[in-house]
Amino acid sequence: xxxxxxxxxxxxxxxxxxxxxxxxxxxxxxxxxxxxxxxxxxxxxxxxxxxxxxxxxxxxxxxxxxxxxxxxxxxxxxxxxxxxxxxxxxxxxxxxxxxxxxxxxxxxxxxxxxxxxxxxxxxxxxxxxxxxxxxxxxxxxxxxxxxxxxxxxxxxxxxxxxxxxxxxxxxxxxxxxxxxxxxxxx
Length: 186
Prior knowledge:
Elements (H helix, E strand, L loop, with lengths): L32 E3 L2 E3 L1 H15 L22 E6 L2 E2 L6 H5 L5 E7 L6 E9 L8 H5 L5 E3 L14 E2 L1 H4 E3 L4 H9 L2
Parallel strand pairs: 3-9
Antiparallel strand pairs: 1-2, 3-4, 3-7, 5-6, 6-8
């Protein structure tokens, strides 16, 4: 087959399948179809149609308030502080506040005579600023801050969105699945 030169190019052949926008493309009608400037063979059309139909008929969660979404262990919901039987795990090192890209965490340390010499006197997370990235969870040496499964956060004013220790502390028994997930992938 003789070589065909496309306008504006040097020595392109039919085998390269690149033509100028105004040039006629090879093939008869019904043999294939054009997608993003490329002619696809007929076999690819059925796969594309199947993919499009699958995306249109994707299953969704109907009746949201009645049927709740149950997140997996890898889900990153709102950050919480782990509370053990003898108190909180946090030692107020401040790494979480330093690594937070949204500057949403504020920690102030205090000292105690217990086994852990430091504890947070003030620990606040501004949930309006939090982007749920999980950096605070990754950097914490004590596994004291983790991402929970909570995803329903509604605030009526700005003050309600600032969570203090009273709203952040969660018993370790409720966070076991997430803690196991973190230990598996560290």
